[in-house]
Amino acid sequence: MTPAALTIAGSDSGGGAGIQADLKTFAAFRVHGLSALAALTAQHTRGVTAVHVPETTFLRAQVEACFDDFDVRVVKLGMLATAEVIETVASLLDARPDVPVVLDPVMVATSGAKLLADDALDAMRTRLLPRATIATPNLPEAELLLGARIDSVVAMHDAAQALRARGANAVLLKGGHLQGEGDVVDVFIDATGMHEIRHARLTLEAHGTGCTLASAVAARIALGDGLRDACIAASDYVHRALVKGYRPGRSDIVVLDHF
Ligand code: PLP
C-alpha cells in the first residue's frame, strides 16, 4: 500500500513553497500526500500580498477527515500563522501520540514576509517543539526559538543540542544562512549523536527549499527510513531539485524542480 503523509501548513498561491511544495515532494517520493490548510497566502515569486487564516474548526475538520480514513505515517508541520492554530494542531497531535511529527518552524519567508505572529513564538516553543520527532529550523528560526546568536558551525552544534534540551527528539539545523565561501553545513542531532551533512553552496536565490526539505524528511520517514538517513536523503533531494530549478515568475527567484 502507498504510505500516506499529512502536511498541515500554508498554501502558496505561487506554487513554489508551502503546501504546494509539500505535495510535489510527497509525489516525487511516491508517498500519498494529504493536506490540511492552516493558512492561505496570496503570493508570487516577489512576495506575499495577503494572508488568510481559516477558522480552526475547519482546520480540525480537515485533519480529522485525513485520520479517519488514511493510514497517516507521518505529519509535517509548516506555516501555522497564529498561536490559536498552533494550539489546535498541538491538541490534534496530543490525541495521536504515536504519529511521527516533522516540525518546520516557519516564521519569515525569504522575501521578508512574516508568516508567524510574534505572540505565537512561545506556543511554538512550548507546544510543538517538545512534540517534534524532528525539528528542521533554519538559523534565523533557531535564533528566535533559543534567543541566542548562531554565527558559526560550532555555535550550530550548541544550538542543535539546546533545541533537543527544549524537547525536540531530533533536530536538523540548516546552515544555509551562515555567511562564507565553503560548503553549506546542516547539523543533525538525535539521541545517538551529532552528524554534519555538507553540500556545495549554490549561488542562486531560491524559494521553497525549507518546505521541500522538511517534506522530503517526512516522505522518507513514511517510507520507513530512520531519522538520520531520512535527513541525508532529503538534503540530497533538495540539492538536486535546486540544480534543476527554474524561474517561473518575474523575479530572479528559482523554484525547485521536483521531477
Ligand atoms: N509561503 C508559505 C506558505 C510557506 O510555508 C513558506 C515557507 O515555509 C514560504 C512561503 C516561504 O518560503 P521561502 O522562504 O522559501 O520563500
Automatic annotation (TrEMBL):
Keywords: ATP-binding, Kinase, Nucleotide-binding, Transferase. GO terms for cellular component: cytosol. Its EC number is 2.7.1.49. GO terms for biological process: thiamine biosynthetic process; thiamine diphosphate biosynthetic process. GO terms for molecular function: ATP binding; hydroxymethylpyrimidine kinase activity; phosphomethylpyrimidine kinase activity. InterPro entries: HMP/HMP-P_kinase_dom, PM/HMP-P_kinase-1, Ribokinase-like. Pathway: Cofactor biosynthesis; thiamine diphosphate biosynthesis. It comes from the Bacteria. The keyword Nucleotide-binding applies. Residues 12-251 form the Pyridoxamine kinase/Phosphomethylpyrimidine kinase domain. PANTHER family: HYDROXYMETHYLPYRIMIDINE_PHOSPHOMETHYLPYRIMIDINE KINASE THI20-RELATED (PTHR20858:SF17), PHOSPHOMETHYLPYRIMIDINE KINASE (PTHR20858). This is hydroxymethylpyrimidine kinase.
